[in-house]
Structure formats: structure tokens, C-alpha cells
Write a structure and sequence with these properties.
Chains A, B: Its EC number is 3.4.13.21. Two copies of one chain form a homodimer. With 236 residues, chain A is of the alpha/beta class. Chain A contains seven helices and eleven strands. Chains A and B meet through helix 7 of A and helix 7 of B.
Chain lengths: 236, 236
């Protein structure tokens, strides 16, 4: 049974890196996992080693070891042997490009369907979706295709944001999602606000965090759902 | 000699549509142009007809007629016969996709190099660049390639924005552009703030508007340039 922890963002302004989701990460991985495979490919302006170290420090506090996939000669084999898979945020376009180049998407999906726990934040939550298409990131490279892992059948928009900065005339996030829905009528989009995450466990999808998520579908009025709601309908 | 008017955004908050750039549009097109070809393909949540009408109303005030390319049986022929070309904002991804499908990019470039005036705003400024890669829009469709017209050799980031809304932890625009530069080291990026535009005329590139633009290049400290500066170095 699939186990997913899909986190909006690593860090709340003014807090330490990966601080707010750390207790959920610990609960989610539980006692059976010792070492997780870390995919650092979304790092653009800093190295994969630096990224591995930064995430490793937080995970080691929680009692888990992290090893970056960039250290393996055979990344597909690394996925096949992973006890847990962790995909960090950064630039979604570079992440997707490297995952396509190394053919990781179908392997990750297969492992996760077999029950291997998957944790992603920001870009790492985005690649769990069917498509890259609801990222907020700048398309700095050709992703070599817009398909992603598709472990969930809906799209997440991480870092979901209600308003523009004052005096800014560009599209709001809601307007951008409405454009997505116009071109992609059959699919739900979940605006996942900072400080919140989705958890799939025991076949049930729920929201964790004090802010609601905003669920969009073409032709329907967006709805706000909270920790108290069962979100499992999004998995159908 | 190429003539370009590349506008950051159509509308300032609280103002009428295409109001702030209208005098520059009138001066730019001058007396020789009567009718301009309008490319409305960036419209997603409203129709091409509605878009043509909205832009047509403003242009007719200025003494110009607009005709949407979607009314022509042969869009390439429409470009070949245009007196001026106007490309409106909206979703850059859909715009680029449709321009690729209809093979308009090389035809527009050719016409503009022959001296046909080109006006774009937002997505319409983006497609004058070498690549789609510095858009802010959500990638709602596969663009069928990241190349754009390449009438200028640098990238514009329209609606350039200095800060995030308060309390938001996502990347700033500057951080996103730094990621672009890491993956695209040889190219300048111009952050074009709302209410401003670039004009290329008589072989000279200048900024119009009271706010400065921010020029980025890999390994260099970003600089702020104003109306008083000669920006022609960006064309080399």
C-alpha cells in the first residue's frame, strides 16, 4: 500500500530548514526505516553534496541516515534497493530533466506502489503528480517531457499563495490554475499552502497543518478543505 | 532595421487596460501603419474574439485597426502581409505552442528583420526572446519546444518583481533568475518591472518608464539601469 508524505515547502520564513515538518517525517518513516535514498537533483545554485549534507543533518536528528543518489554508479539500482525515497525541493525543471535522463520516474513509481515510503517537498511533491504542469518554477531547462511519476492522480501546486504583493498586476496563483484547468479539464488541482502537507497512509489521504488547502476543478467553484476532511476522493 | 516595443505588462493595478503604454504605442507605430496583425493565442480563459475586441478598442482610439490572426485561413500568409505585428499577453506556454504549431516564429522574425514594427506585452515580449525560459507563467501545456523568435539575443523577465508577499517562503524572482543563469551562463536576463518597456529604434535599445530595469548575467553582480542609460549592449 502506497505511503506518501507530500510537503508544500521545506522551510517557513524565520524558521530552521525542514523544521516544521520534522515530527511528521519521523512519524511517517517510523521504526522500520534506517536509511533513505535522497534525490538532490533540484539543487541548481548549490551542489548535490551540499544539499545531501543539509538534509542529512536534519534527518540524522530524527534518527535516519540519508544517502544522495548522485553517489551511486547505478541510480536505477539505488531506487530498486531503497528503503525510503526522499526528493527535495529546488528547481522542478532540472529535477524532472535529470529524472527523465536517468529513467527514474517509472522505477520510483513501482517501488512506491510496492510500499516504499516516499517523502517530497516542493519540487519533490510536484514530481509525485501526473505532470510537471503546476510548478511555480522558472523553466530554466527543457524537462525532456512533462510527465512525472503519477503516484497520485491529481496535481499539487506547492507554495500555494492567495494574493499578489500589493500593487503587482501579474496573474494571481488562482488565475494561473484556472488557465491550467482550461487546458486540462479532467484533473483536480490542490493548492497546498506553505506549512502544510498531504499524507497518504492506510489508503487514506489527509491534510496536515493549520491552514486549509484549496481544491480546484474545471467548471467547479474552488473549495477549502482542512485537516478534518477526508481527501481520499482526490485519489480516484 | 528592426523596430521593437517590448512591454512588461498590459495594465497597472487600478488603471484601464493598456492605458499606460498607449502613448508609446502611438509614437512607435507612427503614421505609416494603418492596420496591425494581432496574435491573441495567449488567451486561455477567454476567447480570441474577445481578446481581439478588447485590444482593438484601445488601438482604434489611437487610430489603428487590429485584425486577429485567428480570422485568417493562412496565418503564415497573414504574417507575411502584415504592416505591424502585435502579440498580447496571457499564458506564454499556450502562445508558444500555437506559434510552433503554425510555424509562425521564423516568419515573424523574418518580417521584423525586414522592418515591420513588432509590439508585445508580457507573453508577447517573452516570445521576442531566444527562449521561453524566463516566463513566470504556469506550464499548462507542452510548448512543443522552448525556442522563441530570437529577435533579441537576451531574455526578458516581464512583470519583474523584487519581493515575495510577506511571510512567503518560496524563491524570489531574483533567485529564480539566478537558477536560470546557472543553467544558461552566456545570456543576459533583463528583469522588466511593471509599467516599463524596452524600445528598439534606429539601432538603439532604451528603457521607457520611471522604474529601472535589473540586468543579470552569470557571475556578475546585477545592475540597475534607467531611461538615461544606453541598453544597446544587450543587443550584441
Amino acid at each position: 500500500m502506497m505511503q506518501l508524505l507530500l510537503i508544500s515547502n521545506s522551510t517557513m520564513p524565520g524558521e530552521a530548514y525542514l523544521d516544521y515538518p520534522k515530527h511528521e517525517i519521523k512519524k511517517f518513516l517510523g521504526d522500520s526505516v534506517k536509511r533513505a535514498l535522497f534525490i538532490p537533483y533540484a539543487a541548481v545554485t548549490f551542489s548535490f553534496d551540499e544539499y545531501e549534507q543539509k538534509v542529512g543533518e536534519r534527518f540524522s536528528e530524527l534518527g535516519f541516515e540519508i544517502k544522495g543518489i548522485h553517489r551511486y554508479d547505478d541510480p536505477v539500482k539505488a531506487v530498486r534497493e531503497a528503503e525510503a525515497i526522499v526528493v527535495g525541493g529546488g528547481n522542478t525543471w532540472q529535477l524532472v530533466r535529470m529524472m527523465h535522463e536517468q529513467n527514474l520516474m517509472p522505477e520510483i513509481k513501482k517501488r512506491v506502489e510496492e510500499g516504499v515510503p516516499y517523502i517530497g517537498w516542493s519540487a519533490g511533491s510536484n514530481v509525485a503528480c501526473p505532470y510537471l504542469k503546476t510548478t511555480n518554477d522558472m523553466p530554466i531547462v527543457d524537462p525532456l517531457g512533462f510527465d512525472c511519476c503519477g503516484m497520485i492522480p491529481f496535481q499539487i501546486n506547492p507554495h500555494y499563495l492567495d494574493a499578489n504583493p500589493e500593487g503587482h498586476g501579474g496573474e494571481t496563483r488562482e488565475q494561473r490554475i484556472e488557465e491550467f484547468l482550461e487546458a486540462n479539464k479532467e484533473i483536480f488541482v490542490a493548492g497546498l499552502r506553505e506549512g502544510t502537507m498531504f499524507k497518504l497512509a492506510d489508503g487514506k489521504l489527509s491534510l496536515i497543518g493549520s491552514r486549509s488547502c484549496r481544491i480546484f476543478k474545471h467548471g467547479e467553484v474552488p473549495v477549502e478543505l482542512t485537516e478534518k476532511d477526508d481527501l481520499t476522493f482526490l485519489m480516484k
